[in-house]
């Protein structure tokens, strides 16, 4: 199963690849489990600055759950609940990962594949990419844990359009909805992904992690505690702040240490 979820490291960036191109990178239950393990492991790598999540090949980011497994794993409500607990656990590991995650989308990004893409911090797609969650045709619903990130990203009206109409739409419409951050030409996708990862990696890693945490926290309705408010100022006690301040005054590029 490690061959179906591949992890590669280059410098400060890791790439996690769904590697089942013959099935348009459909995600088996074992692959969901492995995704959760991979992101839990990467979360603990403090030398890392950025993670790219992608599908193998040019035909699909992912078409979501492997439907061929449904008869075994989702043929009753109880089994579906157990299945959902494992898939939602994997998605939560991506959302909660301390490192910024970029979804590289090329080709189909539909069903659970689109839901998976919403767990990333930034989504960049090629012009040829296609999006949608046409599960009305299967008689299935999107569970609360999967629907919440979608609504947080594009709002309830757009989310309902996707789910109620069940259409497959292009990158331009996905961009208009706010589902993806940018669209690039098919030939320029890898260059844009690399440039984005480089920009992220050049920044202070502690700051990127704080911004992820703060953004996620502000989506919760509970009021901020005094301790949480005070965390906004913790950056001033870091080595990276001193490095950044001195580099700015010296008109040099900062080299952050993550401390």
Structure explained in plain terms:
The protein has 259 residues and is α/β, with parallel strands linked by helices. The chain folds into two domains: 5-200, Alpha-Beta Complex (2-enoyl-CoA Hydratase, Chain A, domain 1), CATH 3.90.226; 204-250, no CATH class. The chain is built from ten helices and ten strands. The strands form two sheets. Strands 1-2-3-5-7-10 form a six-stranded mixed beta sheet, with helices on both faces. A hairpin with a 2-residue loop joins β1 (5-10) and β2 (13-18). It starts with a strand and ends in a 9-residue tail after the last helix. The mean pLDDT is 93.
**What is the H-and-E element order?**
EEHEEHHEEHEEHEHEHHHH
Identify the strand order in the major beta sheet. Answer: 1-2-3-5-7-10
Helix-strand makeup class: alpha/beta
Number of distinct helices: 10
How far apart the termini lie comes to 36 Å
CATH homology superfamily of the largest domain: 2-enoyl-CoA Hydratase, Chain A, domain 1
Helix content: 40-55%
Quickly name the level 1 CATH class of the largest domain. Answer: Alpha Beta
CATH architecture of the largest domain: Alpha-Beta Complex
Overall shape: globular
Beta fraction: 15-25%
Largest sheet report = 6 strands, mixed
Oligomer classification: single chain
Radius of gyration: 19 Å
Strand elements, count: 10
List low-pLDDT spans. Answer: none
- Determine the CATH topology of the largest domain: 2-enoyl-CoA Hydratase, Chain A, domain 1
């Amino acid at each position: 199963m490690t061959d179906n979820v591949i992890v590669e490291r280059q410098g400060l960036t890791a790439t996690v690849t769904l590697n089942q191109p013959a099935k348009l990178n459909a995600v088996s239950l074992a692959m969901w489990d492995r995704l959760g393990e991979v992101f839990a492991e990467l979360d603990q790598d403090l030398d890392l600055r950025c993670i790219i999540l992608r599908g193998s090949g040019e035909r699909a980011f992912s078409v979501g759950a492997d439907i061929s497994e449904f008869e075994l794993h989702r043929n009753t409500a109880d089994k579906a609940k157990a299945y959902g607990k494992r898939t939602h656990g994997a998605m939560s590991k991506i959302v909660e990962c301390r490192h910024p995650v970029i979804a590289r989308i090329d080709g189909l990004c539909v069903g659970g594949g689109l839901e998976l893409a919403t767990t990333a911090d930034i989504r960049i797609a090629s012009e040829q990419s296609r999006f949608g969650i046409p599960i009305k045709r299967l008689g299935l619903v999107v569970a609360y844990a999967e629907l919440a990130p979608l609504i947080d990203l594009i709002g309830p009206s757009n989310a309902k359009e996707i789910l109620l109409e069940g259409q497959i739409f292009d990158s331009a419409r996905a961009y208009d909805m706010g589902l993806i951050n940018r669209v690039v030409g098919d030939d320029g996708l890898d260059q844009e992904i690399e440039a984005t990862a480089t920009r992220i990696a050049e920044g202070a890693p502690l700051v990127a992690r704080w911004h992820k945490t703060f953004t996620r926290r502000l989506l919760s309705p509970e009021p901020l505690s005094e301790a949480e408010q005070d965390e906004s100022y913790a950056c001033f006690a870091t080595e990276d702040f001193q490095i950044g301040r001195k580099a700015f005054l010296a008109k040099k590029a900062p080299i952050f240490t993550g401390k």
